[in-house]
Write a structure and sequence with these properties.
eight-stranded parallel sheet, alpha/beta, 36% helix
Length: 393
């Protein structure tokens, strides 16, 4: 039994107000699981780790990334600075299509090697669980290659994978998106499910992505294979994708800048989490913020993630993502911290496993050199992580 003592805890327990603070707290772990989290006076005996008054939070969770990819798109950044829009670049063969070409040309080992530095940047800021999407291969073998590469990274953090075959139309299917969706549903999805390479299925429902009807087909195929769904929705326009996903009991709907009241209500009824991605909002110089007040009023859990990807959010800092969520979207400190712990776990279907400091959960901890939790949101370019504990180690 390991016991972290002389600590202040932000347990994020939903049974406690705010951040679930315990001023004189302790966390005890029996192997990989938390055996106790609460007042130090009631903690069990064991090997003591003295935290010297530091704060302990749950290990951070990055619940929306495109971490596994090859190449970069710095040249597109230059084009946007010169006035080109994201849609214009995409329609000219850039955007997702350029990363698809790089991923197809890379071996699985090369994808792993290229992705490790990005993972290490997350780990260095206290991240213990990372969601990784496919969607840059867009052929059966290349999608499987991406998902296998993501699983390989599981030696440094808990990896959750999402099959995002419906991310963009590959060039070989130009003008025939329905035929590509046939491929996604009839060949890719069965192979991904049979090989147990995905924990969920995602889709990009957008004008430059796929229509609601095509997205529905993807979700119906996911249901047949027993896989939960997620969605990229309402980022550039309102196609009512979030409400569609809620019909299927989606784990999350992500982006949501153009989400309307009907979509908020549908998510609230379904228990679908909202994943806010301020990195993409900032990088694309967007001006329409997600309807945070409406989500808050409806009780929709709000997660915050990096959206780490080469084209629209080359961000590998959950700490900066929290600052952006606070300054750009007006989330509170408590909402930001819940967004990268408890609510991020819900967005991945892992609320019973990680995201809070509670007995029975996996012992994923972040120990911080701070005086108050607000510092994790307030400061920029500052990493006060003292120690990261993953699965009790």
């Amino acid at each position: 039994m390991k016991v972290w003592r002389n600590a202040r805890l932000a347990t994020l327990s939903p049974r406690l107000p705010g951040l679930g603070v315990v001023e004189d707290g302790a966390v005890a772990a029996d192997g990989e699981r938390i055996a106790y989290a609460g007042p130090a006076a009631d903690a069990p005996q064991g090997e003591v780790i003295d935290c010297e008054g530091r704060w302990i939070t749950p290990g951070l969770i990055d619940c929306h990334t495109h971490l596994v990819h090859a190449g970069d798109r710095a040249h597109e950044f230059e084009l946007r600075l010169a006035g080109a829009s994201y849609e214009e670049i995409a329609r000219a063969g850039g955007g997702i299509a350029s990363t698809v070409a790089a991923v197809r040309a890379a071996s699985e080992a090369e994808l792993v090697a290229a992705s490790r530095p990005r993972l290490e940047a997350l780990v260095a800021e206290g991240v213990t669980t990372v969601e990784v999407k496919s969607g840059y291969g867009l052929t059966l073998e290349d999608e499987l290659k991406q998902l296998r590469a993501a699983r390989t990274l599981g030696d440094r953090a808990s990896i959750v994978t999402s099959f995002l075959g419906a991310h963009a139309l590959p060039p070989e299917f130009a003008g025939n998106p329905d035929a590509y969706i046939d491929l996604v549903c009839e060949r890719m999805m069965p192979a991904v499910a049979d090989q147990r390479l995905a924990d969920a299925v995602d889709a990009f429902c957008e004008g430059i992505g796929f229509t609601p009807a095509q997205t529905r087909r993807v979700f119906e195929a996911a249901r047949r294979h027993g896989l939960p769904v997620k969605i990229h929705a309402e980022q550039l326009s309102n196609l009512n994708g979030a409400a569609l996903a809620a019909e299927f009991g989606a784990l999350s709907a992500d982006h949501l800048e153009h989400l309307d009241e009907a979509g908020v209500a549908a998510m609230a009824r379904a228990g679908t989490a909202a994943v806010l991605l301020p990195g993409a909002f900032y990088f694309l110089r967007d001006s329409r913020v997600p309807p945070v007040e409406a989500l808050r009023a409806a009780g929709v859990p709000m997660a915050v993630a990096t959206d780490c990807n080469p084209g629209t959010s080359p961000l590998t800092s959950p700490l900066l993502a929290m600052n952006m969520a606070a300054t750009l979207f007006r989330l509170t400190v408590d909402e930001c911290l819940a967004g990268v712990t408890r609510n991020a776990a819900k967005a991945l279907g892992l609320a019973d496993t990680v995201g809070t400091l509670e007995a029975g959960k996996v012992c994923d901890l972040a120990v911080w050199d701070i005086e108050r939790p607000a510092e994790l949101v307030y400061r920029m370019g500052f990493n006060p992580l003292h120690a990261r504990v993953w699965r009790g180690q």
